[in-house]
Amino acid sequence: MSDVKKFLYVNRKAPYGTIYALESLEVVLIGAAFEQDVALAFLDDGVFQLTKSQETDGIGVKNFSPTFRALGDYDVTRLYVERESLEERGLTEDDLQEIMYEDEDDDWAEKPSIRVISRAEMADVMAEQDVILSF
């Protein structure tokens, strides 16, 4: 049995207006730098964190959404998005950023990090984790 614990960071908040989304991303990067087995889940308003073309000039904060594209460099390659949360907010998978990683086990083929899954599948993902941190 592996000593590596599986960490899931659950993101439920919109990307701006609170510090939760940015803090989650920072904690994920720190955990990944220490070689934790890290995955992210996006539910409720958290799905807005991964949307394309975020414009933040009008609210006077930096758009941190491009940072998600760097996660593959930290071996964070599993970003689970709940399909029902997207649909409830009038979004589709096409509204999400394209976030890719290079799979070293498959001759460095580029693969998508985002996996849109059902609410039931999300429950299964959560059940498989050792540690769940909610933001």
Describe the structure in your own words.
With 135 residues, the protein is of the alpha/beta class. The protein has a single domain (6-134), classed as Hypothetical Protein Ychn, Chain: A. Helices cover 21% and strands 24% of the residues. Helix 1 (20-33) links the parallel strand 1 and strand 2. The N and C termini lie far apart (29 Å). The mean pLDDT is 94.
Mean pLDDT: 94
**String of helices and strands:** EHEEHEEEHE
Sum up the overall morphology in one term: globular
**How are the strands of the biggest sheet laid out side by side?**
6-3-2-1-7
Oligomer designation: single chain
CATH superfamily: DsrEFH-like
What brief labels describe this structure?
135 residues; alpha/beta; Hypothetical Protein Ychn, Chain: A; 5-stranded parallel sheet; 7 strands; 24% strand; globular
Quick recap:
The protein is of the alpha/beta class and 135 residues long. It has a single domain, classed as Hypothetical Protein Ychn, Chain: A (3-Layer(aba) Sandwich).
